[in-house]
Design a protein that fits this description.
The chain has about 150 residues and is α+β, with helices and mostly antiparallel strands. It is built from 5 helices and 6 strands.
Length: about 150
C-alpha cells in the first residue's frame, strides 16, 4: 500500500506540470554504441542541437572527454540546463534536462538525444520542480509585514 501511495504521489506530480516552476527529466539511455558515447564532438553537437530544438536560449556549453573513455557535458540555457555523462564501456548515458517556464519542452531534447545516440531502450522520470501549491506566497507575507510595521507607528 505504501508503494501505491508513493507511486500515486509521484505520478500526480508528473501530471501536474502546469502547477510547477519547472520540469526536470532524468533519462537513462541504454544500448548506445560505444563509439558514439565516446565521441566528444558528436555529444557536443547533439546536446547543442537538442537545446536549440526545444527553443531554449543557449548561454554556454562545456564538455570534457575522459581518458580512457567517456564524455561529460553541460549546455547552460536561460531556462536551466541539459547535462550528460556517458559510460561507453556499458553503452549507457545519463541525461538530465531541466527547464523552467512553459515555452521550452524538455521532452523534445530527450527524444532527440534518444534517437541520435541510437539508444536501444530508455527510461525517463519527470519531476515537477517548484510546485506552486507548495511555495509560500511571498507577496502576502510582504504585505502582512508592511501592514504590521504600519500599525506600529
Amino acid at each position: 500500500i505504501l508503494f501505491s501511495v508513493l507511486w500515486w504521489k509521484a505520478r500526480k506530480e508528473v501530471l501536474d506540470v502546469k502547477n510547477a516552476l519547472g520540469r526536470h527529466l532524468l533519462t537513462e539511455l541504454y544500448g548506445c554504441p560505444a563509439e558514439m558515447l565516446d565521441n566528444i564532438q558528436l555529444i557536443t553537437d547533439e546536446m547543442t542541437i537538442a537545446a536549440v530544438e526545444t527553443g531554449a536560449d543557449i548561454l554556454k556549453t562545456a564538455f570534457h572527454k575522459f581518458s580512457p573513455q567517456g564524455v561529460t557535458g553541460l549546455v547552460m540555457i536561460s531556462e536551466s540546463h541539459l547535462a550528460i555523462h556517458t559510460w561507453p564501456e556499458h553503452g549507457y548515458a545519463a541525461l538530465d534536462v531541466f527547464t523552467c517556464g512553459r515555452r521550452v519542452d524538455p521532452w523534445v531534447a530527450v527524444r532527440h538525444l534518444e534517437k541520435r545516440l541510437c539508444a536501444q531502450s530508455a527510461h525517463t522520470q519527470e519531476i515537477c520542480r517548484g510546485r506552486l501549491d507548495d511555495l509560500p506566497d511571498i507577496r502576502s507575507s510582504a504585505d502582512q509585514h508592511t501592514e504590521h510595521q504600519g500599525s506600529a507607528t
